[in-house]
Each structure stands twice: as C-alpha cells, then as structure tokens.
C-alpha cells in the first residue's frame, strides 16, 4: 500500500473501539505516518494509541471535542508542538440517530450538524494555515451513501443532510486550495461491519444485505485502504472527488 513515511496525520473520532476511525488510524500508522488519535472518548484514545504502538507505529493521543473551537485549536497547537507539521486530516468523527422527520426536534438536527458538519469545518479550518505553509496537505472526510440515496436502517434525514453538506463543503474547499498543494476528498461508505451493524436483528440484516450486490457489509479495512490512497503522494491529481465504497449498493 501507499507509503506515508514522515507524514503527520490527525484522525478525528479514532477512539471508537470497533469503529472505522480506529482502523484508519492503524492503517495510516502502518504505512508510516505519525498518527494523532483524537476523540471525545479518553479510554478509546488510549486503546487505539496502544494498538498502534504495539504494532511499532507512532501515535499521539489527544482528547478532542470537534464542536468546540477551543478544543480544536488546542489539539492543533499540541500536534504542532509535538511534530511541527500536519500533512493529513481525516474528518471521521460523526454521530447518527434513527428518527423520522416528523418526530425530529430542532435540537436533534442541531446536534447532528454540530458534529458532522460544523465540527468538520472547525477541524478543517484549523489545519489550513499549516498545510498552506507546507505546500502540502491531504484532507479526507467521511460522507456516507445516505447522502446520495437517503438513509437506511441507521440514520435520520438530518444525518443524510449533514453528510451531503460534507460533499458540497469539500468540493468548494478543493477549488479554494488546489494551488496550495492541498487536496480535499471524501469517501462515502455504505454499511460497514461495526457494532451498530452487529446489533441489527437477523431479519433486518438479511433485508439490508439483499440490497448489496456484494452480499455483505463493508469491512473497516476496506474504507481505510481508500483513505490511505487519498492521503498519499500518489493521489496528488485527485481533488474534489468522493469515492463510493458500498459493495455496489449505490452506483
Ligand atoms: P463510531 O460511533 O464507532 O465512531 C465515531 C467516533 O466519533 C466515536 O469514537 C466518538 O467518540 C467520536 N465522536 C463523536 N462525537 C465527537 C465529538 N464531538 N468530538 C470528537 N469525537 C467525537 O462511528 P463509525 O461507525 O466508526 O463511523 C465513523 C464515520 O464513518 C462517521 O462519520 C460515520 O458517519 C461514517 N459512516 C459510517 C458508516 C457505518 O456503517 N458505520 C457508514 C457510512 C459512513
């Protein structure tokens, strides 16, 4: 896979023990990057940091609330103190909620947008100055298949809307920073084999699988592999794009 030696990568939401972010962090570290494991969840951060270090990689754990500008700025300051650069930002932290539009409150809508879109904005804005100075940067954000075809068994319309917002935001930013050596891309996973998937009743899971040509949910490694590519030197002429990773459930 693509080499990320000497690169410094921040992965938000990488403290979820069975989540996609942890696998992204492990994968980028395996490819040589020093990885900043940033999350709300202190236990989870330590767990991911330990896993990276046990595999011989470099990691720094930082408690982060993506919805707080103070917290985001403090993280960036800490990373620059420790490593002096930031090459890769993976905006992975995200939340969802299963609720109909009719039952949704404005607080529900605000909570989901606060993390999935406004938090992503704060993290992205906070690394731009450094990436511009370096004349190199890779920003990869997690959208979702539900941005394109509506949510399924897990998410509400606020989740789908926030993940569609991530796509538009990324395309605009890609144009703004293309001359600075910075690329901005998204990955849009379909259903991934995380805890939430395992919690589905068998009948519901079978119905979902019937709509996936590949006949199974994705694995976290399959999402992380695409992100490692978009984070690498080799993807330098790809910007403003999204990669669908969904086993053919949306083409
Ligand atoms: P997860 O819930 O396992 O992990 C999300 C992590 O984000 C958690 O560790 C959580 O603590 C962290 N987080 C939440 N709010 C935060 C905040 N304010 N500040 C910092 N960290 C915060 O989720 P996952 O299933 O691994 O999903 C990861 C990303 O992939 C999300 O953006 C999600 O929307 C997207 N995605 C997931 C799937 C799937 O099937 N699991 C499909 C498509 C897209």
Automatic annotation (TrEMBL):
Lineage: Bacteria, Bacillati, Bacillota, Bacilli, Bacillales
InterPro entries (UniProt xref): KR_dom (IPR057326), NAD(P)-bd_dom_sf (IPR036291), Sc_DH/Rdtase_CS (IPR020904), SDR (IPR050259), SDR_fam (IPR002347)
Domain of life: Bacteria
Residue stretches making up the Ketoreductase domain: 7-190
Entry keyword set: Oxidoreductase
Source organism of the structure: Metabacillus rhizolycopersici
UniProt keyword annotation of Oxidoreductase present: yes
UniProt-recorded name of the protein: Glucose 1-dehydrogenase
Entries under SUPFAM superfamilies matching the protein: NAD(P)-binding Rossmann-fold domains
Database matches in PROSITE patterns: ADH_SHORT
């Amino acid at each position: 896979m693509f080499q990320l030696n000497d690169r410094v990568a921040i992965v938000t939401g990488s403290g979820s023990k069975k989540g996609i972010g942890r696998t992204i962090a492990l994968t980028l570290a395996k490819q040589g990057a020093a990885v900043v494991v940033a999350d709300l969840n202190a236990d989870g951060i330590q767990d991911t940091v330990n896993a990276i270090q046990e595999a011989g990689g470099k990691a720094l754990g930082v408690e982060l609330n993506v919805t707080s500008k103070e917290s985001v700025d403090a993280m960036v300051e800490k990373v620059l103190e420790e490593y002096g650069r930031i090459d890769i930002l993976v905006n992975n932290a995200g939340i969802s909620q299963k609720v109909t539009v009719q039952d949704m409150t404005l607080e529900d809508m605000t909570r989901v947008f606060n993390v999935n879109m406004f938090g992503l904005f704060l993290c992205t804005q906070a690394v731009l100055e450094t990436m511009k100075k370096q004349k190199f940067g890779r920003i990869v954000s997690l959208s979702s298949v539900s941005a394109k075809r509506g949510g399924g068994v897990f998410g509400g319309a606020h989740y789908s809307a926030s993940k569609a917002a991530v796509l538009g935001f990324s395309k605009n930013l890609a144009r703004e920073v293309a001359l600075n050596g910075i690329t901005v891309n998204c990955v849009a996973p379909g259903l991934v084999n995380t805890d939430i998937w395992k919690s589905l009743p068998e009948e519901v899971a079978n119905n979902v699988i019937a709509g996936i040509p590949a006949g199974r949910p994705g694995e976290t490694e399959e999402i992380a592999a695409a992100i490692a590519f978009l984070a690498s030197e080799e993807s330098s002429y790809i910007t403003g794009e999204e990669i669908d990773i969904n086993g053919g459930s949306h083409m």
